[in-house]
Amino acid sequence: MSTVVGWLRGLFAVGMLAGFYVVSFALLAADAALVVLMLRGMVERPSQAGNWSLAVGGSIPAAAALLYGMATVSRTEESPPDSVVLRRADAPGLWRLVEDLAGQLGTRPPGRILLTAEANASVSEDARLLGFAVGERTMNLGVPLLLWLKPVELRAVLCHELGHYAGRHTRFGAITYRGAASLRSTLFRLRMTARSDEARVGYTWLFQAAIGVYAWVYLRLSLAVRRRQELEADAEAVAMVGPEVTAQALRAVHALGITWAGFESRYLRPVQRLGFVPEDVFEAFAAMTGDPLVRRRMAELRAHPVEAGRSPLDSHPPLARRLALIEARPATPPRTVEDEIPLIGDPSPVPRVQRRMLGEAGRSATALPRTEWADLAAEAFAIELASLLLDAASDTGTTARPTLATVLGLLDRGEQTALVRRLTDAPEPEEQLAEALYALTGQALAGAGRARWALSWTRGYVLDCPLDPRGRLDDLVAAAARDKAAVPALRAELARLGLDIEAPVVLALRTVAAPAGRTTAGRSGRSAPDLVVEELARQRKVAKVTMGAVAVAGMVWVAALLGSDSSQPYGRTGLPRAAVSRYSPWPLPTAFLPTPHFTVSFPEPVIPRPLPSLDFRIHFVERGDTLSALACEYGTTVEDLQERNDMGKRTGLAVGQMLLVPAKGEGSGIVAADCR
Q1: CA 33, 40, 573, 604 torsion-angle sign
Q2: Signed CA dihedral, 233, 237, 243, 248: sign only
Q3: What is the helix (H) or strand (E) element at residue 115, kind and residue range?
Q4: Element holding 261 (H helix, E strand)
Q5: Rounded CA gap, 215 and 609, in Å?
Q6: pLDDT digit string, tens, across residues 511-560
Q7: CA of 74: how far to CAs of 18, 129, 161, 188, 495, in Å?
Q8: CA contacts within 13 A on the Cβ side of 531
Q9: Could you report the per-residue pLDDT of 623-641, keeping only the tens digit for each?
């Protein structure tokens, strides 16, 4: 039965992928047909060509973005950039366990195991021939899972991932990944192309709307199947290790993943941007998980898993639903027996994963022992916040270099509101001010050698001041940030501690030999992501091609226009039309075009004023041109030029605008007096 379901899902995935081709080629065919009609009309009836420049200039960027997105369909899913191949000789116990579990599930084991730095696990398969041919299988296994999960929990995770192979989910997933990647790539490039010229509404927005609708349908249908597959993989794990162990593993992975993400985003990466990393990242994380407050938080996450910020496009069902379905199953004896053999014999792959993970930042960093790195991290966090508060104090009109005395003076004068407004726009700004004042006060004491910073895995940093063993300073700082009446008490306490509040606050890292100066270099502008840089470079190439195509088409149109028969009389609806400088949003074939913005209108001779000549030429407006100057140049009047170009009473001109003017010697003969 699972084989039939797998084939049906494969056909469904191929059908959805084919739908992307159908929608894309339909848009390209309609676009090409429109361009052909416009170019044909431009040559055969140049005076009625309409908005040919939009048809050519607006089609090329949109079509190029769409074609580039379609090209990504053939790309396979890439391995994580920090992954390291785990050879059988490096981890014979893990390989034997994976192969034994795959045999019990009746499926082929993976051909590769990759260690990654994520607190997660996944499987993939190179789906050849759109998933109908067997490809190489790969399992990605995060080092945090290997080091921190219990053996029975790791076994449940492996059973879940191998269950995807048993249900042939990876073939469907490989195809849907390609389709989703192509849709994301196409929409990204269409949006970038549309925003590169926001003043013009053209085909890019139409393409984006059509592909966006299909992407909405595609993702919701494919993700519904993938969520169902996750529940099926959970069922395979339950059958192998039992519902209790499976639920326990899910809760443990959830808590470990959140803790690891917090460690990486709050501690590892910010300090790495300053140029320092721990010698052993996983040892530093072990120190974090060993903190009593962190252990308590992880226990709460396991007992009450909360998923914040879930999206309708999540590939997994809600964790609460998965746990409810697992724990509702009757308890069964596990089909697997836990071994006591070590899973990894050679630990060398783990440091290689760390080197690749840290190398993603693209900059060199100094490796420090864990304790030194922790002290530096605490000091760096405090300096960052202290620097922000001094910046806010300098923005209030003070001319001298701000110090702790400057900030206390502002608070003493009741300027907390002004200081908070310059410090932060985050929620609960009063708490932000109290935290910044604590950092500034502590850094002043640390710079004077009367205290030191220590890393806290829950607060970020805490002040270790031997002269204040009871932590009275914390309460005084919090009170001074709230009420100006408490500032004198804080001044008195700082004087008791022997601190000169008028002295400049040291904003350099003192824990290690680091360059002098502030530690807030990370606040400078960040470079654009590689994907954006690549897209901008592609757009520049497309823009050059577009300009060349429009220039060539323009020369052909002008040649056809000048070579057309000007002796043929024109009726009210058969008049020559100038190309517009502002494009209509929805150009159509010539026969159905609305009247362009600039339409040459030759009225019947029923009013006593000179008639425009049918012999004309095109003038491109240059900087400094005015209607009166052009009227003098071409021997006519301002009113004649306004009428030729359907301008009404308007006199404003835009640089590059096309105007119909009389041919030399064919003017009305009536010119203004100031032209003589």
Answers
A1: positive
A2: negative
A3: strand 112-116
A4: helix 243-263
A5: 60
A6: 554 443 344 433 333 444 556 667 777 777 777 777 777 777 777 777 77
A7: 13, 11, 25, 18, 70
A8: 7
A9: 767 877 788 888 788 777 7
